[in-house]
Amino acid sequence: MYDANKKKSRSLLLKPKTELALQSTNLVSRGLDLVRQLSLNSISGLRKAAEQGFALAQYNLGVMYENGIEVTQDYNEAMKWYRKAAEQGLAEAENALGYMYYSGKGLPGDYDEAIKWYRRAAEHGLAEAQFNIGFMYDNGRAVTRDYNEAIKWYQKAAEQGFVDAQYNLGVMYDKGKGVPQDHDEALKWYSKVAKHGGFIEARGMRQL
Amino acid sequence: MHVNLIPQPNPEEKELTEKRIRLADMAEMLSQNELELETIKADLLVFEERYLRTVGVMYAELDKIKAQILEILARCYPLDEEAGKRAAEARNQARESARATEFIEQHKKQKHLIPSDELKKLYREAARTMHPDLTTNEEARVARQKMMVQINLAYENGDAERLRLLLRRWLKSPESVEGEGTGAELMRVTRKIVQAEERLRVIDIKMAKSKSTDLWLLKEEVDDAEQDGRDMLTEMANAIKSEIDAAKDRLDNLMENFDYV
Q1: Which one of A93, A153, B106, B115 has the largest count of C-beta atoms within 10 Å of its C-beta?
Q2: Sign of the Cα pseudo-torsion (A173, A176, A179, A182, in order)
Q3: Residue A96 and residue A62 in contact, taking contact as beta carbons nearer than 8 Å
Q4: Residue A151: count of CB within 10 angstroms of its CB
Q5: For chain B, what are the domain ranges?
Q6: Total-model pTM
Q7: What pLDDT is stored for residue A126 in this prediction?
Q8: Tell me, what's the pLDDT at B179?
Q9: Per-residue model confidence (pLDDT) at position A105
């Protein structure tokens, strides 16, 4: 079973839109939009925007601290910024904060807190968080193990094209966990994974 | 019996002295805040010009090319109402951007300068001396308002000589001295204080308004980045330049194909 919770380190930096379409007629307000985007391209600009309360900048700063990009790695700082962004309802930050609790980075692990934040992010429709909840049901962490619930959440994430969820869903059908064993259905999900041609060898598919 | 009368300060005179001190403070504050307001205006003019020269012209060029692209597309799909509408919008935007940047061409001669400390000092002195809210005489007020306009203009143009001249002239022709005793003077001083307070409030509002404009926010972003050693205006111009290049490629492509349409 693929555990994205363990292997994934957040490397994704959300970028604000850069398209300068015909939306604004004013040269000055267009410039203001542009300068704000550009200023996020430096750590000092990012920090300033984060301190001014922009959720996206707070999240990005959290990612920099969690992974030690351009700053010294510091899980406490990462937590601090994720939390600020999460409290503003940014789904990516809610999920990242949940992951910090899950993995016990910078503090003792806390599955209850983890799933609490995953649920918030999932409510905002974030596939990765839906997958994470599925995984917790799958493995009985913070909740009683419940394959039906796990499948429900994997399904949501898989339908949004989240590859890890597609793979795990394939496994559920393959092994008949929470559903009657169904190799056709398993193959369907494994093929989707294989099509991404990405990180997973079509391990399950070879076994079929 | 011999009584030594200790001279009692007349309460009215005492109040007048206190109010005069207060008025002097107010005049000081008033001249300071008028200066700040004028400085914001001057800084904004300088910045706007710099912005339009470096970034504004790039937007204008981009808009022109975008308008051409959409124009061609509209001609390729004459039945597509949406295409026609977009082309018209793009045309309008290109025209507006061009107009905004042409403005700086016309004002090329009139260079805006960042005010020097000397100029600021002169401005404060002039404002303190001639401020219209520091008189109660209606005629004098009108005269002072006219002076204030000239003072602001001289400051905006960075013309220290002109400020000195205005001051000299004013001091040579003093306003009629208002007499008629302590009571009348007390009333006038009180009135001046009230006027000054009102003007200070107005200045506060005007400053807050200026500082909430997009132009001011943009200026702040650029200034802050400058302190970090970043030249934002150039970065912006470069970002738009790459958009222009992409748009040009697209336009060239369309033009080639359009020959066959």
Answers
A1: A93
A2: positive
A3: yes
A4: 21
A5: 24-172+191-247
A6: 0.63
A7: 95
A8: 63
A9: 85
Q: Which CATH superfamily hosts domain A4-16+26-207?
A: Tetratricopeptide repeat domain (1.25.40.10)
Look at residue A6 in the predicted model and tell me its pLDDT. Answer: 42
Instruction: Give the tens place of pLDDT for each residue, A150-165.
Output: 999 999 999 999 999 9
Q: What is the pLDDT of residues B56-98, one digit of tens each?
A: 999 999 999 999 999 988 888 888 888 889 999 999 999 999 8
Restricting to B residues 62-121, those with a Cβ less than 8 Å away from any Cβ of A are 62, 66, 86, 89-90, 92-93, 96-97, 100-101
| Mean pLDDT, range A58-76, rounded to an integer | 92
Across all residues in chain A, what is the average pLDDT? Answer: 83
Closest of A173, A157, A34, A61 to residue B55, by C-alpha? A34
In sequence order, what are the residues at sequence separation of 6 or more whose Cβ sits closer than 8 angstroms to the Cβ of residue B67? B87, B90, B91, B93, B94
B51 close contact with A: CB closer than 8 A:
yes
CA–CA separation, B239 and B232 (whole Å): 10
Query: How far, CA to CA in Å, does B198 sit from each of B138, B156, B194?
Result: 16, 24, 6
Residue among B48, B224, B232 minimizing CB distance to A38: B232
Rounded to 10 degrees, what is the CA torsion of B146, B149, B154, B160? 60
Which B residues, 168 through 207, put their C-beta within 8 Å of a C-beta on chain A? none
Helix axes B11-51, B181-211, angle to 10 degrees: 20
**Nearest-5° angle of CA A95, CA A20, CA B229?**
80
**CA–CA separation, B258 vs B254, rounded Å?**
6
Predicted-complex ipTM score: 0.76
Specify whether the CB–CB gap between A63 and A10 falls below 8 A: yes
Nearest CA in chain B to A49: B221
Which residue of chain B is at minimal alpha-carbon distance from A19?
Answer: B243
**Picking from A8-17, A163-172, B240-249, which range would have the lowest pLDDT averaged per residue?**
A8-17
Tokens of A192: 């989707």
- Inspect the interface and report whether the beta carbons of B243 and A20 lie closer than 8 Å: yes
CB contact under 8 Å between A38 and B243, yes or no, is no
CA angle A42–A48–A54, rounded 5-degree value: 105
Cα-Cα-Cα-Cα dihedral of B163, B168, B172, B174, to 10°? 40
For residue B192 the two structure tokens come to: 């001046």
CB B61 within 8 A of CB B67: no
SS3 of A97, please? helix
Give the whole-angstrom CA distance, residue B259 versus residue B261.
6
A27: exposed, middle or buried (C-beta count within 10 Å: 0-12, 13-18, 19+)? buried
